Amino acid sequence: MSDIFSFRGAPGTGWSQPSPILEESEVRKSIPNGASRKALPGWPRASEPEIVRHYTWLSNRNFGIDTGFYPLGSCTMKHNPRLNEKIVQLPGIDRIHPLQPESHLQGLLSIFFEMQEMLAECSGMDSVTLQPVAGAQGEFTAIRCIQEYHRSNGEGHRDKVIVPDSAHGTNPASASMCGYEIVEIPSAEGGRLDLGALSAAVGDDTAAMMITNPSTLGLFEVEITEAARIVHEAGGQMYYDGANFNAIIGKTDPGRMGFDAVHYNLHKTFSQPHGGGGPGSGPIGVREHLSRFLPTPVAARKSKGAEDPEGVGDGFWYFWEDVGESSIGKVQQWHGNAGAVVRAWAFYRRYGRELEMMSEHAVLNSNYLRHIIMNPDKETAEGIHCMPAEGADTDLVMHEFTLSMAPLKELNGVTGKDVAKRLLDYGYMSPTVYFPQIVPECLMIEPTETESKEVLDQFASDLHSVLSEDPETVTSAPHTTPVKRVDEVWAARNLVLRHPGDSFPGR
Amino acid sequence: MSDIFSFRGAPGTGWSQPSPILEESEVRKSIPNGASRKALPGWPRASEPEIVRHYTWLSNRNFGIDTGFYPLGSCTMKHNPRLNEKIVQLPGIDRIHPLQPESHLQGLLSIFFEMQEMLAECSGMDSVTLQPVAGAQGEFTAIRCIQEYHRSNGEGHRDKVIVPDSAHGTNPASASMCGYEIVEIPSAEGGRLDLGALSAAVGDDTAAMMITNPSTLGLFEVEITEAARIVHEAGGQMYYDGANFNAIIGKTDPGRMGFDAVHYNLHKTFSQPHGGGGPGSGPIGVREHLSRFLPTPVAARKSKGAEDPEGVGDGFWYFWEDVGESSIGKVQQWHGNAGAVVRAWAFYRRYGRELEMMSEHAVLNSNYLRHIIMNPDKETAEGIHCMPAEGADTDLVMHEFTLSMAPLKELNGVTGKDVAKRLLDYGYMSPTVYFPQIVPECLMIEPTETESKEVLDQFASDLHSVLSEDPETVTSAPHTTPVKRVDEVWAARNLVLRHPGDSFPGR
Amino acid sequence: MVDQLPNAGREKEMLEAMGMSSMDDLFSNIPDGIRRVGPLPLPDPQSEEEIWADAQRILGANVSLDDRPSFLSAGLSRNFVPSVVGMLATRGEFLTSYTPYQPEVSQGMLQAMWEFQTMICELVGLPISNVSMYDASTAAAEAITCAVRVNNRKALQKDVVYISSLVPPHRMSVIRNYTIGAGIEIRTIEHDDSGNLLLPSAESAAGSCAVYVEQPNSLGIVDIGLAELKSLIGDATSLIVGIDAVSLGVLEPPGKWGADMVVGEGQPFGIGPTFGGPIYGIFACTEKYLRQMPGRIVGQSWDTDGNLAFTLTLSTREQHIRRHRATSNICSNETLIALMGAIHMSLLGPEGLERLALRVAAATEATKRSISVIDSVDLVNPGASHFREFAIRVPGNASDALLHLDSNGVLGGLDLGIWWEGMSDCILVGADERTSEDDIAALRDGLRSWTKEVSG
Amino acid sequence: MVDQLPNAGREKEMLEAMGMSSMDDLFSNIPDGIRRVGPLPLPDPQSEEEIWADAQRILGANVSLDDRPSFLSAGLSRNFVPSVVGMLATRGEFLTSYTPYQPEVSQGMLQAMWEFQTMICELVGLPISNVSMYDASTAAAEAITCAVRVNNRKALQKDVVYISSLVPPHRMSVIRNYTIGAGIEIRTIEHDDSGNLLLPSAESAAGSCAVYVEQPNSLGIVDIGLAELKSLIGDATSLIVGIDAVSLGVLEPPGKWGADMVVGEGQPFGIGPTFGGPIYGIFACTEKYLRQMPGRIVGQSWDTDGNLAFTLTLSTREQHIRRHRATSNICSNETLIALMGAIHMSLLGPEGLERLALRVAAATEATKRSISVIDSVDLVNPGASHFREFAIRVPGNASDALLHLDSNGVLGGLDLGIWWEGMSDCILVGADERTSEDDIAALRDGLRSWTKEVSG
Ligand SMILES: Cc1ncc(COP(=O)(O)O)c(C=O)c1O
Ligand SMILES: Cc1ncc(COP(=O)(O)O)c(C=O)c1O
Hints:
The complex is a heterotetramer, with two copies of chain A and two copies of chain C. Chain A is α/β, with parallel strands linked by helices.
């Protein structure tokens, strides 16, 4: 166990810095009496070699896509091209301040502009802002725009947002943060959108409906245009949770489906690395009628005038356009997660017009994996205690699918979570468990387009093995991981949320 | 097991390249009939995600300094500052061709010049070349210079090079490649240089003596000046193997000791990462009388004239100076391992005049580690089967030291190699084993200055544990490594030196 | 792009295994009426080397802060990030992992974040920290909503919070967006001519849900009066303090003078200004707020073998469990950047932090001295102590002065007219640890030549 | 520099544990007469940020090949290295490891090098490869000494080897240094006007120890006649062929037309020109040379549990065992760069290699066509086929022409007068995969304007 707080180099070991440009005693004088720090923080005192070894050690106790298959449904854990990491180290992004004059920012503004246009095109929206820094913030931002839209129409009384019960938790949470009441509508048999329930839910108080398509069950909601009609007729707005965008690019888009606003998860569809939980980037796109409410500013361009200094060489001059008085203002203090935008730009450039192929392969891999899991050869099938149930009754899924371990649990008590933990022993990250909640003992599996057939074949075969194993082995899993099953209840009861400073805590 | 040759993507999967600037059919015409390749090489067909996962997996089966303590004696496995890796990615080194005009190379030439000067200063030599790319090539180069020197003096008959029996294998190998006969002189009692043996060995046929000081036993050869006198009197030249330079910088130097030529291992003393076996860099320094034989060219400078274009801003114009007619010419086809030189430059800049402190800490750590290994507390001592013998009878060692496991072997059959393998289980790289050969069951330990006291304490304590363990546990070690003890004899008998192409070989 | 698709060229084989014959079969569920026909109107795919060339060219059209003397700070730091930070944080095991829902294979990130929480607590002087917010502004905004959730029931001034009038407008805008839904009313507290908070007017905040102030404030002013704020507003009203993280190397942490919550920009530790994102927000608080706070938290625990282990905890506050009753909607956060921050902080160590803060303080002082001697250039708050930033008033439009400096290759600071209409003759000058004597001379000379131009 | 020394500040504690009181005690073994007194006359230590700033400034004073159209190749390639190569190879476990003497904890590097050996064998058409030489020149030199060791006993022309007269002088010089000790006599084989080897004169090499030729040769000429060489010199004389590694994407590998050993520069796969080093030499051979070859070799084996495993093998050839009877003195080699090469090769795959070679061939052909139409500029070997390089004769000094091009921002190639006195009016023009139409136009226009200047 490497404990960074046990590194006790001499004072100043790691700091290697030039001296202040004034004498220390003079500097001290510039700090008001009484405001001076009395005791320095209890940070570790470590040299570079110790730091490198500590974080290398930690990294070896962490699982990423680079380590193995990461079928975490809804999270689109695709390969992160390394070029993109190299690009964001260029001083032209790393060493740029958002408040520099536009003449210093032509390159970045042009990338922002290109991304706004591309995202609008792919989603069938009219305007795009790149400011929100995560999907959830995109939802929040779009719902705020919708809120201001209703208010500007004198419809401020609309105080409800409808979400299906299969929706991601951020949907209701974001709407609720805008002050909306949430109306959750149950899914129909088979996990699909229930138009009857929707019709019953809409009304004069409907501000918006939030939904993702394909749904979190990996189903394409074929009645989506009808749903849009119902909501629009009631005076509500349609919000598209774009977390599942990876399934449909070039095949259809939320504009065609009848949506008014959408967020994109650049970290999913366009592969900004997820980095242990973030950063993300959650641009939103809206139809014309919502444009004037977007956060400000957005990137714009005009033909380059003779007086403008050098641009990027494409004949345009790029600038920040103020969205105007109706804008909701700011949701992040600068222009969003520019680093993620630049990575996503580099990712998109690799596919260009063939982004469609990316979605094709995502859906191909998902259907293929589902097929080989659910159709083992006879011999394998005979060894399995009990096959999972499908999360949804369908022939086709989109980029992800769900399996229910309920039959297994019934048979021998092995739960979805047990299977998930056991898969860790086989060198996989586990699928998403227990979401969507409407599928009992759910495993939600999203292979993404960047996994090879060999990996999918192996995963199916290993899952079959798990399903054939002694239940005791599965329920006590994992066995080969850096630590065994972790006591989450102890953590929540005892709340040891920081290092005690001397040595690691004892029980 | 990840097998890259099992990746079988479609033709062209990984190649992502722009098209040729001429039509393929036209290009094909430019290739002479009959010279065209008939079948492409059987390389893997892998996508970027597969490559990343494969090499990540491989790296996790490899042990580096970043993984843990690496006390590999004679190899100076010190921490490699990461800044240096960042610097060599700058286009000003990565994208530079050695045949560009000098006006394109002012930055690199100035770094080469600075390094030549610094190395000369630290070693007490007059001229330095950075061309040799490894220590062994440095030895070879210097011996070639000495050879030409003798020839130019009409002393071409000198055909013997003297090396102590504790010398590194490259010393005799390098001299032998120059056509010299090797005279190996035995060490005196205690592993020190035997002046009597040396006196007996020198003669009219002595071309040179090669020796390292401190010796491979970590001993400072106190009679070194006397040795130099003996060799010089016989008309021979003194060659200093600088692999152990880490021990003495700022404290003494080969010039003071009486040497005529020296090589440096930049990858040891100046921390160019060793990268699984290389690259290295082996500059040599020589006294005045040998300068004109050095490989050509070397970096030089003059005050900047008005006509010279911009330089690096220090008022000098840097250029390549031809060493002249007596030069031995080239040993590497360009200017050596420039990348290693630049890393070493960045390393040296961190210490500047305080390089001395680096050597102090290297020697401090070595003596401290030896002390705590050899002086366990009473309780620990009682548990140990048998303490190692010291490799040399001395109070002080320099940057490294040797231990003999001979007593243990005698007692219970546990060999030095067994102890080394068992240390792997404790998370260490093993010390150098069975070198120098004059110490029976030798473990040669070099902690370097970049290990903390905590690491040294822990290592000593773990070594004590190994010495207390059930012999069976030790002789069957390692137990927790990615693979168990590897059958080196099978490898040498069967010589499976390449992948068979289909799947991994079976026995 | 095929280099990203391991199954390119093998579609048929896979389709056939499923009894399908074309990729189109996979999308047959999408009704015709909403199918896109024909390719996307986007450019051709590019290879890695073409993209790299374009990226170098296009991003090369930006002007890097490192290319010239720069005095633009305004909440983002032109910092120096040691090279190990990026090299370690981009190790694939960190870079390509997601939220550590499976602690058994995520101990690395979990432990690193637990250490991060510890270092933030030590920095700000409070017992609890989460593993990052999006940025300083959302951290401030969510601290305010959190305070309202905790205090509103007993508050005398229900749904009311007080905010310093010197909180910059972009942050105010974020705060407005985050508080509007909860119906929170924002009142402002003013400052005196030296830029110090008007304590008597702050007294009126007693009984409200929260007070949000910044130290140093947006004009760089270190206001010692703030130390009395907590005693004025009382226990029932949260004191939320926005900080400059580096300043805590020399300034007493707010946790020691009564802050209930501390928020701020983490960026100086871990990542360059990077055009404003990804950066990360610091969020720390006392125990009282623990169950209402936003964001993820790592706790220590044990595995079934009794080994020390880490896990996410208190998830019941979060949206994926509590849905619309969650304490925040935050899901993807800024963990990777927080990891970079943790590495940077551990490299600095206590004395390294102090040195860093002293360097910024020295540069601020030296710049202030040098600029304030220019005729007709005045300090806006001459009596105040400054850290990192200070405002000057120039004889004319700040924008003209900055344009003049720009043409001399100096990035002079921020035109304060952008933030506050009444300050269009003021520049916010920011110094930092990398500010050199030469930089200062360039700024001084540029300003001087401009003042001569306008006056003569 | 203290950031590199974990025990800085704790010296006393450690000294005391040993019963010492000062650092000087540690060096008391060094006799006074040779002790340096006083500090080294070197500059002050610098911090990371100062070194980084200096490095950027100093290295920024160099002119990068990517900054301008460049036609300088001459044995080093202005290649494009995919970003994963560096990122993976610099993972600490690879970067900071040494020679895998302990196979149990070095399987990663061992397997990667075994795969490298396989890819090199496949590339050149021979069954055996080592894990790298220093560079192409030492690879050629050590191949020659190896051939002499193997063949000399039965050779008719003892201690004699034949080398193409077009082997460039820097490589010849390396070969001379490496062969002089063994008393090897070097004779040259000449070329005809088209640059093709004079086969009749090559016949005289039969019975010697080895023949060393290059394909394409240093003037870029692809010489189909070489395919007959092996039958002319016979089995007892080694045919050693130096290659352009990329060319083997379109050219038949020498192993298929009789080469006993293949050597060459590995640099195009894995690393930029990097001022000429570190790069790595390719060395491959037939079984006959296995026990006399230089360098490290990885073999497959098994561990005691029967798992597949890798280990260094045939170490008995090496200096650390055989000492002065070793087959070479090579110890530290270029493994890390070979690893980069392996990653690059696996990314390319067979078709990627072919595409790369076609791109170079296309650029060579296009450049040749464009240049050869310039009045008074002639191809030196008009009848020949070229890959990557070709020589032109200009109406005046090559150095003048190159200076003119340089002042027009074009790096025009190599002044062949540097290599061969008689060719001071010749330029070696190198094209590569990154050569664009615009680059070619810039070269053509620059050359044309210069020829006009000199002729007018
Ligand atoms: C379906 C769905 N919607 C919304 C989100 C929220 O996105 P973010 O994590 O970027 O805030 C997610 C991400 O987990 C998601 O899967
Ligand atoms: C004492 C000694 N001399 C010479 C050498 C040879 O140096 P290199 O490996 O750089 O060729 C070494 C390196 O292992 C060594 O330890």
